[in-house]
Amino acid sequence: MRNEDVFEAVAAALQRGEQAALVTIIRAQGSTPQRVGAKMLVYPDGRIVGTIGGGCYENEASLKARTAIQTRQPMTAKYELSDDLAEDSGLICGGQMEVYIEPLEPAPALYLVGGGHVAYHLAEVAHTVGFKLHVIDDREKFANAERFPYAEEIVIDNIPTWLAAAELPSHAYAVILTRGHRHDLDALRALAPKTLRYLGLIGSRAKVARIYEALEAEGIATEQLQQVHAPVGLDLGAVTPQEIAISILAELIAVKYGKLGVPAADADRPAQSLRWAPPTTPETAVSG
Hints:
Layout (H helix, E strand, L loop, with lengths): L2 H14 L3 E10 L9 E4 L5 E3 L4 H17 L3 E6 L3 H6 L6 E9 L4 E5 L3 H10 L5 E6 L13 E6 L2 H7 L7 E4 L4 H11 L6 E4 L3 H14 L3 H4 L15 H16 L32
Parallel strand pairs: 6-7, 6-9, 7-8, 9-10
Antiparallel strand pairs: 1-2, 1-5, 2-3, 4-5
Helix pairs in contact: 4-9, 5-6, 6-7
């Protein structure tokens, strides 16, 4: 198969929002089944497009590629084409081969749950770094193409009802930025059970603690709430909606590249403490 076919498959996968990994031969010495530059695209379910040649090596490279998809980390692999693995299958070329395995991710989908001031400014900056925007609000005044010209999707509907029914991709990012405590609670109730790359909730510590207490009383698992980034955003000392939007985007980027375990303001404390630490200053109302 030609590399052109592999490139077409890469483009199609990214267009569909599907993760994959690209395997490329970067070094070949002696007798090898394929030349330097030969490529193979591997999907999470093990399907492949293209070939790097040699069944046993291709299979092992495919397994490594699926690991790279899961970890989102590139890797290299070296193969001696006369080793025991090859001898077992009868595929002995006598050369050496090295491949580079690069996980590919589609442009991340960012769901802005609430179309208020912070959401507006977050959309303005998030689209510039490649996030595909989806805006959900029950008010057309706040959810419209004029306000969010870069949005892939604008939904005007009852927020918790829509979220509960929606099939959000597992690599999606979602930020809850509604106009009040009750709406935030309803949105988090719908989103907490879903598997997402990132889920954030805006608000003060006191507000977050009250929402978590209410949801745990309803039976939402503590483990699910522990995955929520709340209060949302890195601790940059942000005050204005524009600054808060930047702090949220910084956290999204950190998660995207695997550089964030817990919010920066709480890096010296276990993640679960984020939900129950009492506020040290009077609570300020922060909404989307």
